[in-house]
Amino acid sequence: MLAPGGTIESEKLIWDKAAHFIAFGLILWSLGVLFRRLPRTWAALLAIALGAAVEEVQRYIGRDPSWGDLLADALGVATALVIWVVWRRFRPREAFQGPTPRQ
User: Fold this and answer.
1) Each residue of 60-76: pLDDT tens digit?
2) Using only C-alpha atoms, what is the Rg of the chain?
3) Which residue has the higher pLDDT, 103 or 16?
4) What domain count does the chain have?
5) Does any domain span residue 48?
6) H/E stretch holding 93
7) Which pTM value belongs to this model?
8) Which of 1-10, 25-34, 67-76 has the lowest mean pLDDT?
9) Is residue 37 scored above 60 in pLDDT?
10) CB within 8 A of 23, min separation 6: which ones?
11) Is residue 22 situated within a structural domain?
12) Longest Cα separation, the chain
């Protein structure tokens, strides 16, 4: 993401967008693991804001910001968010682990 710039052929461009997609999906997952009380929508917005910040920083370090990269970031976050919601909805619930009631 902040690596030195250069020309990217179309094949490399696909892998670049895939890397953004996967990286920002994993960033959302990491936020969910590290900050369990953080609402999912806030975590998603934070991840997308990070992607926008990375693209803006590139303007100042000799690289060109890319709307395509930001779109790939946002799509990765959105996909991870859907997976997160579905997983939370359908995961098996743990059995009660408290003390056993007296008979």
Assistant:
1) 998 989 999 999 999 99
2) 19
3) 16
4) 1
5) yes
6) none
7) 0.75
8) 1-10
9) yes
10) 1, 73, 76
11) yes
12) 74
